[in-house]
Amino acid sequence: MADMVSTVPNDIIFFHYPGSPYGGIQPVILPRPDLLALGIKYRRIPLLAIGRDVYADTRLILRVLDERFPNTTTTPPSSSAPGNDNDNDNDKSSPLLRALPHDPLLSALFTAYTIDGGISRTAVALLPLDLPIFHNEALLRDRADFAGVTSWGGAEARKEARPHALANMRCYFSLLEAGLGDGRRWLAGSQALGKEDLDAVWPLEWAVGVPGALDEEVLGPARFPRVYAWMGRVREMVGLSQQRLGEQASVSGEEAVTKIKRGAFAQDPADTRVLEHDPLRLDVGDEVRVWPTDTGSAHKDQGRLVRLKEDEVVIEVCGADGTPVRLHTPRWGFRVEKVIMDGDIALSWLLG
């Protein structure tokens, strides 16, 4: 952890932990006192704070960053054609530091495939059986809570699941290998790295980074040379961008909480509205609970509904000191429950 800093670039604070496939400044296991101090019970990582607006779920975080920083340079990509092996297929002086080109549908499909379609869970199931984490009882209990099961990481269950995970991951590798079979360098056949490449690659990069996770005979470079070459190109572009950005500022959890509470709202605090004709029939000011429906579902955030859009829910929560913070979640994969303050009665509807 670097020394505390007095300023935070762009008022953005990223909550993550080391080794997270999605993103430290947060403990790997609960509790996470910094988030609780903000009045947030959501337990998944990462979260992104911009002032007093806190965004949950990687998909929403990326969308918000794209909207907030649509163009960071005006340097265009080179003119090399799709499939050309020219090393200058990207302007390597500033990769990823401008808005990435992307096919919105292809990007959405890869996002759904990797997250909702189970590729990320498959990558976790490939963790080697002898990893130290499987001897950490506190971590195993925490992951059982995360997954919503009574136990997680049992040796026999993991041993039985691994061959199936290898078979499932091979299906994904085969899909990508075939897609790259026409000589394209990027998944959309574009002239430069696109967002869909990042949406597709991250579970593979995470698994490759864990020694022993991928069986060389089943998922090695000899069987999937195009996939590994493509992963290498993505890795190169990301690495060059990281070099350009330099070392990122790091703050302690305590300082992060202080800066967020003292900050202004990133979005107009007067923008309080509910989508017209929304099937949930909620109103601004309703007390609601919001939580993810797949993992971490036991941890529900409750607060005043501020905004309900087609693809986003915003509620206002408070920590112990009463400072309001606005928590943003997607609608897809999350559920909202209207809390009726009359005994123990509550109504709920599915979001998405």
Describe the structure.
With 352 residues, the protein is of the alpha+beta class. 34% of the residues lie in helices and 15% in strands. It is built from 10 helices and 10 strands. Strands 1, 2, 3, 4, 5, 6, 7, 8, 9 and 10 form a 10-stranded mixed β-sheet that branches. The longest helix has 25 residues, at 155-179.
Ranges where pLDDT stays below 50 over 5 or more residues in a row are 1-5, 73-95, 344-352
Alpha-carbon Rg, integer: 22 Å
Q: Determine the N-to-C terminus distance.
A: 39 Å
In helices, the fraction of residues equals 25-40%
Derived from helix and strand composition plus strand pairing, the structural class reads alpha+beta
Q: Per DSSP, what share of the residues sits in E-state strands of 2 or more residues?
A: 15-25%
Indicate the overall shape.
Answer: globular
Largest sheet: number of strands, sense, barrel closure: 10 strands, mixed
Got a strand count? 10
Query: Mean pLDDT score, rounded?
Result: 84
- In quaternary terms, these chains amount to single chain
Give helix and strand order, one letter per element, not per position.
EHEEHHHHHHHHHEEEEEEE
Can you count the helices?
10
SSE inventory with pairings:
Layout: E1 12-15, H1 33-37, E2 47-50, E3 53-56, H2 58-68, H3 104-116, H4 119-125, H5 137-147, H6 155-179, H7 195-208, H8 216-219, H9 225-245, H10 253-262, E4 273-274, E5 287-292, E6 301-308, E7 312-318, E8 324-330, E9 334-339, E10 346-351
Parallel strand pairs: 3-8, 4-6
Antiparallel strand pairs: 1-2, 2-3, 5-6, 5-9, 6-7, 7-8, 9-10
